[in-house]
Write a structure and sequence with these properties.
Layout (H helix, E strand, L loop, with lengths): L4 E2 L10 H8 L12 H14 L3 E5 L2 H12 L5 E5 L3 H4 L4 H4 L4 E5 L7 H7 L11 E7 L12 H13 L4 E5 L2 H8 L3 H5 L4 E5 L10 E5 L1 H4 L2 H7 L8 H13 L4 H15 L5 E3 L6 E6 L5 H10 L2 E2 L1 E4 L2 E5 L6 H18 L3
Parallel strand pairs: 1-11, 3-4, 3-5, 5-6, 6-7
Antiparallel strand pairs: 2-8, 7-8, 9-10, 10-13, 12-13
Helix pairs in contact: 1-12, 2-12, 6-7, 13-15, 14-15
Bound molecules: pyridoxal-5'-phosphate.
Amino acid sequence: MTTPIDLRSDTVTTPTAAMRRAMAEAEVGDDVLDGDPTVRRLEARVADLLGKPQVLFFPTGTMANQAALWLQGEPGTEVYCHDDSHIVNWEIAGTAALAGLQVRMVRGGPVLDAAALHAAFRRPFSIHAPRASLVCAENTHNGAGGMVTRLEQLRAIRDTAAEAGLPLHLDGARLWNASVATGTSLADFASCAATVMVSFSKGLGAPVGACLAGDAAPMRRAWEVRKRLGGGMRQSGILAAAALHGLDHHLGRLHEDHARARRLAEALATVPGVSVVPPDTNIVMIDLVGGQESSAVVERAKALGVRCTSWNATRVRCVLHLDIDDAALARATAALAEALREALPK
Ligand SMILES: Cc1ncc(COP(=O)(O)O)c(C=O)c1O
C-alpha cells in the first residue's frame, strides 16, 4: 500500500531531517526567566523581515491572533472582520471568550476590501450602538483559496480603518506566500498594520510556532498577555530553531507550491461538473457545480490514496506544501479527477 498523499493542509508537513537536526542542536535558555538566545535570534530576524520594532514568539498563530485582539481591542467594543476569516470561523469565538469583543462581520467580496469595510461602519452615530476598536485583515486569505490582498488594497483598508480611528491587525499566517506570489516585500505588507501575525507551521514546514510583530505602542503589554494566555515557554529555542530553519531553507521554495497549485487547478478545471478558483498561491478550492457532494469526493479520494478537505457541502480544498513533489502531484491529480468524476450524479 503506497503512502497517502495528504493535501488537507500545509500544516501536515513533518519536520525534515535537517530541521530536526537544527532543533536538536539549538542553543537554549529559559525564555520565561532570562531569555532564550535562539528565540531572541528568531525575533530579531522577523523584526528585520517585517520592519517592525517589537516581535514576540508564540506557540501558535491562534494565540498570537488572540493576543493581538486583546492588546488592541477594548472589551465591549466591536472588531471588524471578514465573515470568512480564520479569526471568525476557526478560533472558537476567542474574540468573545477572551478579548470580550463582538465581531462585526464585513461581507461582500471573497476577502476584506476597503469599500466593504466602509459600508460596514455603523452610522449615523448613536450612543446606543457599539463602538469599534479594531479591524482585522487576513493575507493570504485561507477561506478564499489562498487569495492575495495586494499592497494597494491593503493600504486602502488601512486608510479606511485609520479614517475611523481604528488600528489594523493582519493575520499573516501565510504572508510569506503573499510576498512570494507578488514580489511585494513582507515589510511593505506589514507597514499597513499595527500588528502582524506570521506562522512557521504552514508553508515553512516547522512543527509549531508564530510571531506577533508590531509597533511599540500596541506591543507594550504583549509579553504580559502571552504569559496570561499560557504562552510563556521555557527552552523554546528548540522550536525557534525550526522556524529559523524554515526561513533559511523553505521560504525560497514556496513558489514551487504555487506552481503545483496552478497545475492541479488547471488539470481539475477540465473535469465535468467542477469550477476551480484560479489559485494565487498554494490553496486550490474546487467548487462542485454538477451536484456532487464534497464529502463523497473526499471519501472517494481517500480510498484512492489522496486526503483533501470538505471545506463546505460543495467545496473541496487541496493545499500544496513541502511534502508534495511532482510525482505526488501527478498521482493526486489523477486520483482527484477520478473521485470528482465518480461523484457526479448518475
Ligand atoms: C489564516 C490562518 N490564521 C491563523 C491560523 C492559526 O495558526 P495555528 O494553527 O498556528 O494556531 C491558521 C491555521 O491554519 C490560518 O490558516
